[in-house]
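Thought: the user asked what WAT1-related protein looks like in 3D. I have the sequence; next I should run the structure tool and report back without guessing.
Action: structure_tool
Action Input:
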Amino acid sequence: MAMKSTGSLYNQALPYVAMVLMRFGSAGMPIVAKYALNRGMSQHVLVVYRFAIATLVLAPFAIVFDRKVRPKMTLSVFVQIVLLSLLEPAIDQNLYYTGIKYTTATVATALCNVLPAFVFLLAWACRLEKVDVRKVQCQAKILGTIGTVGGAMIMTMFNGPMLTLPWTKINNLSQSTNTDASSIEDPLKGAIMILVGCVCWACFVILQAITLKSYPAELSLTALICFMGTIEGAIVALVMERGNAAAWAIHWDSKLLAAVYSGIICSGVAYYIGAMVIQAKGPVFFSSFNPLTMVIVAIMSSFIFSEIMYLGRVIGAIVIVVGLYMVLWGKSKDQKVSSDSNTSSKEETPISGETQMATTHGTTNQDFVALDLIKVSKHSPQ
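Observation:
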């Protein structure tokens, strides 16, 4: 009994731990990418290298570990993979890296926090998310989603008084230099690009949840998305960088670091964790952790770069955390109700052999990402 309870606790905590670790890894991406782009790296080439490296890293693991659970590739699944790679690697990442060239890493990270709102609305529209405004948990999810976006806007738009921290150093000269450098940027243009990219990102999250119903092999799906993203990104880069062969040159410098870091951590590992968490918890649960990236960036920057901390950023971070846990509380209540209803139906209805096999392998039929139990059981390892 003790071992069963420990295993159950581990399975319940795993998605939360995975998402927190994933956000820590993602927090370094805006800083590394901004540094490389400022040193002349093409954003379109960075996208190609990022997903090429992710494909090389993930493909061997997908071949080995998914050989018994990988479903047969169908035309509909292939089309969905092409669309997934078009939405996230090709369109979103090109818009994001182009937008970050026109603005700062902090602003780019903050703007990405509109993702929970976009995903929630799309999931609601696609009937992947059940919303009953009369229920307290649904009200919590709605208010929590608004809170995460509102907190991000507070961090971006409201500075307030400066907080003197022991480990930070105020350098007026560097502040004036940064102000002069930002004058040649176009924050509005960059913000629009990033926001449009977030719309594509939200569509990617929803479509990924749908694709996992018929292709529940997270590692293989991730590798295929990265592979197709490399091809589609290369087409975009060849068009945008035509006649500029030097844009493809890469050396042992920040450009290589940006490509390797983004490819392994942000594309390879993050995409796999994202697919796994979406299958288990749903797209809103996945996207609700996105605001944590901005909080982590703000904290890490104050330590590593001695950046100045403002009261507005602290207030915004608190609002984000409160909104995040409101969404998670609402999701936990929904899953508890779904689990109770599934338990009662099992007691009343005999379980067939195929469904029993799927239950044995731990596959749950959630309202959010409702996997076909019979299809999953046919491809489960014996």
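Thought: the tool returned a structure. Summarizing for the user.
Final Answer: Structure for WAT1-related protein predicted. Confidence is low (pLDDT under 50) at residues 171-184, 349-382. The CA atoms of residues 218 and 275 lie 5 Å apart.
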